[in-house]
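User: What would this chain look like folded?
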Amino acid sequence: MKRYAVGIDLGGTKILSALVERQTGEVIASVKKKTKKEKGPLNIIQKMQAAVEELFEETSVKKEQISSIGIGAAGQIDRENGILIGAPNLDCYDLNIRDLIMSHFEIPVYLGNDVEIATIGEMKFGAARGCDDFVCVFVGTGVGSAIVKNGEIIRGATGTAGEIGHIIVDLNGRPCACGAHGCLEAYASRSAIEKRIEGALKKGRHSVILDYLEPGKAITSGMIRKSIERGDELVTACVDEASDYLSGGIASIINFVNPKLIVLGGGLIEAVDYFYQNTVKKAKAKSLPVPASKIEFKKAALGDFSGVVGAAFLEDRKL
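Assistant: Here's the prediction, encoded as structure tokens.
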């Protein structure tokens, strides 16, 4: 009998859940919902529960065939107790996700970091398959990373290793959602690019991105790509600035960790090839010559499903 697991990728703007076949990593069905963090943590829990229930309704898979529910959340995690300790981009703190979801479905639940689960997905079935020494960096609402050495994710003394988004790139810089100032995330994330564009538009700068914007709607990675393709100076300049900062952070990884491979993923990387190519080029140029000559870059291969596939394997604790 085939065995399945549910993977949930809990992000700052969307919740993606999927039913995954554990032998092959195949996504059988998926459900996407908006996070709407402003409605509070319990609403997020209810949305995850509803998404899983929809998966069961859409497929013929029985509950007895589900080995676990794995959840990756954008924040700092207490894996042993299933608690989301702190997630500024979700406005959630000390939320016992595991117990709340497990009591609802009576299925074992495992919790991990959002980039951790994406890294597991790429390691088992994606761009890092067959590589045991690499770093994943994902750019979305924030900037996160995970470090893999000898085929295992390095989690650090408190389980929070890999927080590249919170390395300080400007001692007196922009405020970050984490409460600090000058974090890489405040300069290189999609959110940071959006803020720069929106700030310039409020000051009267012209941009073709206005052709795509709707009142009350956020700027998307697709809008950014289309604007760059049309040669928009404002959007291109904001993306170039983010690429400058991100490449500096990645060069620091290359020099300090010295991995064989860096996998870049997330909505912005996937949608805007200009951003990806420029970041890779600049990162190599900013790194020390010897590690720069050996480093390999790849885009995440599983796209939106990196996280949900990886989350389905959180029960394999050795990962």
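The first helix runs from residue 41 to 58. If you want, I can go into more detail on any region.
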